[in-house]
From TrEMBL:
UniProt-annotated stretches for the region Disordered: 1-20
Flavoprotein among keywords: yes
Sequence ranges assigned to domain FAD-binding PCMH-type in this UniProt record: 1-181
GO MF, one example: FAD binding
Organism of this sequence: Methylobacterium soli
Keyword terms, alphabetized: FAD, Flavoprotein
Keyword Flavoprotein: yes
InterPro entries the record matches: FAD-bd_PCMH, FAD-bd_PCMH-like_sf, FAD-bd_PCMH_sub2, FAD-linked_Oxase-like_C, Oxid_FAD_bind_N
PANTHER family for this protein: D-LACTATE DEHYDROGENASE, GLYCOLATE OXIDASE SUBUNIT GLCE
PROSITE patterns found in the cross-reference section: FAD_PCMH
Top-rank lineage group of the source organism: Bacteria
Protein name in UniProt: FAD-binding protein
Cited SUPFAM superfamilies: FAD-binding/transporter-associated domain-like (SSF56176), FAD-linked oxidases, C-terminal domain (SSF55103)
């Protein structure tokens, strides 16, 4: 299989034009750390952005950073940390879960809309993404957005590219808003709550004025022998003391929480973000989104249909679920989507063997009106179907 590695945007555009002339399907990649997500590749060549690297803009006072798509995410994060700043949305590192290697790239954060536990407070990656440059399927260089947040009329290409998984264009540069690192981080950890009580506690805390930046529940056996319900606070030290005290009073019916800080707290949230509980296994792993108040009921309904392990993030609205990945089965797709039909939400199969990913819908199936819109967007931006064909949906 041919592999292309441009070192500049114009060179990348030329390669895409040549591929379009041959109708040569391309697999677009950064460091390939998320290669196992989506339907198996239906491509003839690989085009990587590894050669498109380097930070192109950093304005600490304006809280804006831009870099070429192949720039290592760690490089950008190190630059921000040196000035006491961070990406607001806490992007997940998929390597342990997917068993992959390499350095995650900055462009892939946008392409996958990669967001972690802080999403409940700071929004998703797309909410901080303010500018993109990309090459469309005709080999044209497109620029959308810039250095400031602003209202958009018409088609918002910045938001459209976020979460498109490289199916609409080859990202060459992305620009994000950033935030200051907080002075202190503390986690309230309640012990022994069942799923329903845990979600009740998380909902009460999230509905309070005390501003959580993380809200998760680890059932017994996930990260420890006893269930833990976790609420993260960030800010000035005095503010943390006050808010933690008020939350203790508000939630006293759920028990007395332990306060976890420092590296122990940071490691706890890294594990939640990176799904370390399911790393290194052979199980299929699903990422399920639903209304937080329905999370416990949804997980219980799935568990009645097949054996599974799970935990909750986003106050119960995000369920990470692991179940057996039978080579000839559907990795629980039938049971999960039936439960979603009753409870509401959507599910993405994040990790499974290739035969399973080829046989079942990996991303949530779309109603026909939405599928027509999806096909139309693909045809408008990538008329010959060059980019990551079939990764999201068969035939697209």
């Amino acid at each position: 299989m041919r592999s292309y590695e441009p070192t500049g945007e114009d060179e990348a555009a030329g390669m895409v034009r040549e591929a379009a002339g041959r109708t040569e399907p391309l697999r677009l990649v950064g460091a390939d750390t998320k290669a196992g997500i989506g339907r198996p590749a239906q491509d003839a060549a690989t085009l990587t952005v590894r050669g498109l690297s380097g930070i192109t803009l950093y304005e600490p006072a304006e809280m804006v950073v831009a870099a070429r798509a192949g720039t290592a995410l760690a490089e950008v994060q190190a630059l921000l940390a040196a000035r006491g700043q961070m990406l607001p949305f806490e992007p997940m590192d998929h390597r342990r879960l997917m068993g992959s290697s390499g350095e995650p790239t900055f462009g892939a954060v946008a392409a996958a809309n990669n967001s972690g536990p802080r999403r409940i407070n700071a929004g998703a990656a797309r909410d901080s993404l303010i500018g993109v440059r990309f090459v469309n399927g005709r080999g044209e260089v497109i620029k959308s957005g810039g250095r400031v947040m602003k209202n958009v009329t018409g088609l918002d290409l910045v938001k459209l590219m976020a979460g498109s998984w490289g199916t609409l264009g080859l990202l060459t540069e992305v620009t994000f808003k950033v935030l200051p690192v907080q002075e202190r981080v503390a986690t309230l950890a309640f012990s022994g709550l069942d799923d329903a009580r845990a979600v009740e506690a998380l909902s009460a805390a999230l509905g309070s004025p005390f501003e959580l930046t993380g809200a998760a529940h680890l059932p017994a056996g996930i990260g420890g022998p006893e269930a833990r319900t976790l609420m993260r606070l960030e800010g000035f030290a005095e503010s943390i003391d006050y808010r933690a005290g008020e939350l203790r009073r508000l939630l006293k019916r759920f028990g007395l929480p332990e306060i976890v800080e420092g590296e122990a707290g940071a490691a706890l949230w890294r594990g939640i973000r990176d799904v370390e509980a399911f790393a290194g296994g052979a199980e299929a792993v699903w990422r399920i989104s639903t209304a937080p108040v329905r999370g416990a009921a949804l997980a219980a309904e799935i568990a009645r249909a097949r054996a599974a392990r799970w935990y909750y993030d986003w106050g119960g609205g995000l369920i990470w679920l692991a179940t057996e990945a039978e080579a000839e089965g559907d990795a629980g797709a039938g049971a999960i989507r039936a439960a979603l039909a009753a409870q509401g939400g959507h599910a993405t199969l994040i990790r499974a063997p290739d035969p399973v990913r080829a046989a079942v819908p990996v991303f949530q199936p779309l109603a026909e009106p939405l599928m027509r819109v999806t096909r139309g967007l693909k045809a408008a931006h990538d008329p010959k179907g060059l980019f990551n064909p079939g990764r999201l949906y068969a035939g697209i």
